[in-house]
Structure formats: C-alpha cells, structure tokens
Design a protein that fits this description.
Length: 182
Amino acid sequence: MKSLSTLVVLSFLMLFSTAQLDSQLDQMPHEMYKLDWPAGEVWQLATRDETDKVLRIEMVRTSSSPEYQADQIVMTSHKGMQKMDVENIMRALYQEALRTCYTARLTVIDKDLSTEFPWVIFGIECKVRDNGEPGESQIWQVVQGKFALYTNARLFHATPVSEETKQKTASFFKTGRIVYNN
C-alpha cells in the first residue's frame, strides 16, 4: 500500500498539473526553486521524474540525523502554474490527506502572502491511518513563482513532530529562493 505522502503527492499532481495551457511553457524563462541544504544533512536521490509540466524529485536519507528524523523529501515543480492561491493548495493537500486519515491535523507554521512569491509552510499529522496502519507527519512548503508552483515536503514516520523540528524545517524551507536560467 502506498504511503499517505505518496497518495497526497500523486493526487496533487493529478488535480493541478493541467491548470495552465501547454503553449505557455515554451515561452517562459527557466525558473527554478533552490533550497540551501543544511550542513550534515545526507540525502540520496531516489527518483527524478520530469515531463513538460512537472518535475518531481524524491530523496531519501542515507544516514540518520536526530535533528530531523525525516525519511524522505519530495520536491515538485509544477511548470506553467501561475497565480495559484497557496492557501488553497494547502487546503487541497489537507483534504487529500483526510481521505486516508480522517483524524489528520493541519497546522500552519508560517506564511507570507504579501511577498513577490507568496508562500505557506504547514504541517499535516496523521497518528493512525483509517485502515489501522501507522500514520506519518508531513511538513510542506508551497511557493508560487512567476512561472511555476513549487511544493516541498519533508515526510516523517514519527508523529507528532516536535515543535523544534517544525521550526528547524521551516527555517530550512525559508532558505529557498526563485532563480532563473535563460
């Protein structure tokens, strides 16, 4: 059975990957979201899938770190998705989580909707899935660029995640920035 995080990401891709016209993609500058990885974090590329509309990168931990205790990271770029409301995307991801975990809890950690590139960082915690399997915790970042929507998720088997880990993860996400390569 796929984990809650996989279902959330796959459903998110299906819901929103066709939000913009294909013809716009070829005319846009190459926009990317760059994160500055914390020193000592050791991650290995698990999968990298790219289409003309979506780039999805999944990374797994190659050594344990008590600081984050994360099992995987999923970074997704939704090319051509413009002017999306990041809070609506957050609510859609939460609604998707509720499909397999009716007790899932949503917590907004931080947000800035007034900046050039609006963003929200939030957590979704599920202690036990509806089918009785152990749940997981997720800390998400959603950022609206000029030419793409970016989602980053740190996925934890442990639930709940400590307040300290939430803040450290939020600080990590805040190092991210939009960059352009033409």
